[in-house]
Amino acid sequence: MTFSSLDDAESALDWIGVDFTETGTGFEGALADDERDLLAAAIEDPDSPGPVRDLARALGRLLDEQGEASPRWRVDFGA
Predict the structure, then answer these.
(1) How far apart are CA 22 and CA 66, in angstroms?
(2) Domain-by-domain residue ranges, the chain?
(3) In this structure, are residues 32 and 70 in contact, taking their beta carbons and an 8 Å threshold?
(4) What span, in angstroms and rounded, lies between the C-alpha atoms of 21 and 40?
(5) CA-CA distances (angstroms) from residue 12 to 3, 68, 69?
(6) Which of 38, 48, 58, 61 measures 20 to 30 Å from 29, CA to CA?
(7) In a structure prediction context, what are the per-residue pLDDT tens digits for the chain, which is 79 residues long?
(8) What is the C-alpha separation between 45 and 53, in angstroms, rounded?
(9) What pTM does this model have?
(10) In this structure, is the dihedral angle defined by the CA atoms of residues 60, 63, 65 and 71, taken in order, positive or negative?
């Protein structure tokens, strides 16, 4: 997923609560199965902005689709 700015991307990830590192033009991390609760909470929170819910859904799909224990993800900004 791509956000328009570093602040937008970082805010969305902070809202969800997953761990991440900055890598120049994006953020990267690995998901753990126990982060499903964080993703669900961000999706269900009526105060979550649409992009936060979209990102949480995308990360949830990644967890569902990947056979590995800790799927890697990347969120870009400034595209």
Answers:
(1) 23
(2) 2-77
(3) yes
(4) 22
(5) 9, 24, 23
(6) 48
(7) 889 988 999 999 999 999 999 998 899 999 988 899 999 999 999 999 999 999 999 999 999 888 667 889 999 988 5
(8) 9
(9) 0.90
(10) positive
The two three-digit tokens of residue 73, written as one number: 């993800």
Q: Residue 17 is which amino acid?
A: G
For residue 30, give every residue at least 6 positions away whose Cβ sits within 8 Å of its Cβ, in sequence order, or none: 70, 71, 72, 73
Residue 67 has a pLDDT of: 64
Structure tokens at 21: 């590192």
**Secondary structure element (H or E) that encloses residue 37, with its range:** helix 36-44
Task: Report CA 51 to chain centroid distance, whole Å.
Answer: 10
Alpha carbon of residue 46 to chain centroid: 17
